[in-house]
Each structure stands twice: as structure tokens, then as C-alpha cells.
Amino acid sequence: MDPINGQSLSKSAIQPTHVELPLLFKADTTSDGRTMLKRKRYSIPLYNDGGVPSWLEHSVFGNRVDVVAIKIAGMDSSLASLPVNSLGSFVDFEPQVGDDVFVLGYPGGVDGGHELAIWKRGSIASQPSVDIDQLPKILVDTATRKGMSGAPVIVRRSGIIVPRGVTSTPGSLSGEEIIGQADTFLGVYSGRIGDDPMGLQLGIVWKASVIDEIVKGGLPGQPPYP
Hints:
Elements: E1 18-29, E2 35-45, E3 55-57, E4 69-70, E5 100-105, E6 118-124, E7 137-141, E8 152-161, E9 178-192, E10 202-207, H1 209-217, E11 219-220
Antiparallel strand pairs: 1-2, 3-4, 3-11, 5-6, 5-8, 6-7, 7-10, 8-9, 9-10
InterPro entries: Peptidase_S1_PA, Peptidase_S1_PA_chymotrypsin
Protein name: Trypsin-like peptidase domain-containing protein
Organism: Bradyrhizobium algeriense
């Protein structure tokens, strides 16, 4: 459903009942100490037996924020998949206009082999500290396509990276800076402005902060139909 006008995005207007996703689990350990992984597909219902939505929406903006949280329960300790916003390789730095971004998704249903995502490159097009339409979202300049909604968006910066909380002055380094390349999690991609794929080429990214806000204090989801 389009969160702006409430219209169905499907030509058939069919409403989905489940979300299906692949997850990785630890399997056998090889003789040289490497851990093998196996993939399982899981189907998660969007509604309980009484037809009540199983997702949480933003506590302030509701479904005007096009991101929800759905609890994944019953996983055992062999689960190897990790939430993208918890990866230890990320560096917490302040994104800026012009920074490179990568939208990790499946344009037109195409994958990178073994269900791995395609990395489509772009750049931050609006001031990250400023909310667009009084909502916690950012615009990115990238030629995204259908099949990428819900994709994580990663910011990449090269050179001298100053993590949050580190004080750095021009012409001198504190020793806590990172020299080289660093990535951080920007947010969740959820569509582009306009229907023409060759038009504005501006994509909408919901800030990473909305995920924590929904998980910690989200409100019960509302059915996407009257």
C-alpha cells in the first residue's frame, strides 16, 4: 500500500498474508575449523489467527513512516544471520551530503547469486540532519528499481573518518580517527519519488533511528485497508 495515498501498489490489489525470508544457520564444522552454513526459508504470518496485524508501527507517525517491525521467534542458537544495524564492522560517523551510499536489494527480482543482494550505488542528496516533509527520512540520488523496497542502505566514506564523539581539529589528528574506508548503516530504502524510472532518480531512505524507535516503543499495526 502506498503510505501517502493509501492505494494498492499491486495491479491486482491483492494483500499479502506472509513475509518469506531466507536465514543462515551454522551447520557442520570442517576439519580445518571452518563453520559451514546452511540456508533455510521461513514464512512469517503478517496477521494472527484473529486477523490482527503482527507488526509494530512508529509510535509518533504510524504508517506515515514506511517501516515496521515484526518479531521473529523460535530461532535456535545456531542462527548465523545478524541484524544489519548491529554489524560490528560498522563505524559510527556522521553522514553528510555527497557521501556514497549503497542500496542492497533485488532490482527487478535480480540477485547476485545464492540470493545475495545487488549493491546499487548512489549518494546522499539531502541534508541528513534535516527531516523531509517533517518525517525522519533522507533523499538519495540513485537509479533504484522495483524490488528494492525495504533494502538496507549503507554509507561509505574514504579518507580520514572521524567517529562520533571524537574531537578533531583542522590540521591535526587526535589519534582516534580512522584512515582508509568505513561504512555505517544509514537506514531503510522504501521507494523513489515519481513513477518514471528515468525521472528524478531520487530515492527515499528512512533514518536508522526509526528502527530502534519502533522496536522499543512501536504501536500495534493497523490493517492497510478500510
